[in-house]
């Protein structure tokens, strides 16, 4: 059995589809299952059992001998949430409890960290584990991920194989339920569909022109391909960046969406909301040499390829 937490979410549901496509059908799906809209993400997928996240750790205590691998993708991912107790409980402590079980039962695990741990990028975007304690996340969500990464690295006992993945700006199918936290691709598609135009955040940093703020946008299909590869690799444990490795501007992204929709470009700018303005990242770019260095060689989608597939095949023009 292969466990996927966050099963009805964006990345988790895509990972289960990938596993099914590779003929792994004994999947244990872990989540809340209290949102009918999100639950539709796994309709038609081959799932052996659904387990509520609140009882999963106890389920694992009973069923560990049958579990071959765990993908711990589930988390509270709202970067605007300031409930530190909730984030600690669902992100940091939950993952600690799972880690200790993976040590005890000798189960390999891949877990979701985040590029939000890098903060403003003062120390760059290299996944050097010696640098991790120096990182300064900009919000409690990023801190909850940072706290676990540091804790994991400090542990004298570790699962025989483990990997933490710092996801950068992931976009793709099954993210529609994320609201404000959905990718700019999703928001651009819907704005353009509804109004024929797209409003981007104005730059409030003299180093960047409007729309030229840059992010490492990574297609979710590439993310799940890496997860699947790691399940078979099972060596070189550690924390890894997972982005495309190439920063692109929001203008590039928006133009790609207009092109994929076959519509004429119409882009304007609005002020960045004040509640996120002082915590806004103007540049992120994953250094991918560490993952490449352990043998991952598959090409990532470039932004235009990913947007064209996402918009054309999954969102519908």
UniProtKB/TrEMBL annotation:
Question: How is the cofactor bound, in the record's words?
Answer: Binds 1 NADP(+) per subunit.
Named cofactor requirement(s): NADP(+)
Question: Which UniProt keywords are given for this protein, alphabetically ordered?
Answer: Carbohydrate metabolism, Isomerase, NADP
One protein family per Pfam: Epimerase
Give residues annotated as binding substrate. 169, 180, 187, 201-204, 215, 280
Q: Which domain of life is it from?
A: Bacteria
Q: What family is reported?
A: Belongs to the NAD(P)-dependent epimerase/dehydratase family. HldD subfamily.
* Domain comment (free text): Contains a large N-terminal NADP-binding domain, and a smaller C-terminal substrate-binding domain.
Provide the protein name: ADP-L-glycero-D-manno-heptose-6-epimerase
What species is given as this protein's source? Fulvivirga kasyanovii
| Species lineage | Bacteria, Pseudomonadati, Bacteroidota, Cytophagia, Cytophagales
């Amino acid at each position: 059995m292969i466990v996927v937490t966050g099963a009805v979410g964006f990345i988790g549901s895509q990972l289960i589809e990938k596993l099914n496509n590779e003929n792994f059908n004994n999947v244990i799906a872990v989540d809340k299952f209290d949102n009918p809209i999100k639950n539709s993400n796994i309709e038609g997928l081959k799932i052996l059992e659904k387990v509520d996240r609140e009882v999963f750790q106890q389920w694992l205590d009973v069923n560990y001998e049958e579990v071959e691998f765990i993908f711990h993708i589930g988390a509270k991912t709202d970067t605007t949430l300031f409930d530190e107790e909730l984030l600690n409980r669902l992100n940091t402590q939950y993952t600690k409890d799972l880690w200790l079980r993976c040590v005890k039962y000798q189960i390999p695990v891949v877990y979701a960290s985040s590029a939000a741990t890098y903060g403003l990028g003062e120390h760059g975007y290299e996944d050097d584990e010696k640098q991790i304690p120096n990182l300064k996340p900009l919000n409690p969500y990023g801190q909850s991920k940072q706290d676990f990464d540091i804790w994991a690295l400090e542990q004298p006992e570790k699962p025989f194989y483990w990997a933490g993945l710092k996801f950068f700006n992931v976009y793709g199918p099954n993210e529609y339920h994320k609201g404000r936290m959905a990718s700019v691709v999703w928001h651009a598609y819907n704005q353009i569909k509804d109004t024929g135009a797209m409003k981007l955040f104005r730059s409030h940093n003299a180093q960047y022109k409007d729309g030229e703020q840059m992010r490492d946008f990574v297609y979710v299909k590439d993310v799940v391909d890496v997860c699947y590869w790691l399940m078979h690799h099972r060596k070189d444990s550690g924390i890894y960046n997972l982005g495309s490795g190439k920063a692109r501007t929001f203008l590039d992204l928006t133009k790609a969406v207009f092109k994929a929709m076959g519509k004429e470009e119409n882009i304007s700018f609005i002020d960045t909301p004040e509640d996120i303005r002082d915590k806004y990242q103007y540049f992120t770019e994953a250094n991918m040499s560490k993952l490449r260095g352990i043998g991952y060689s598959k090409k990532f989608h470039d932004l235009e390829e990913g947007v064209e597939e996402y918009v054309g095949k999954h969102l519908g023009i």
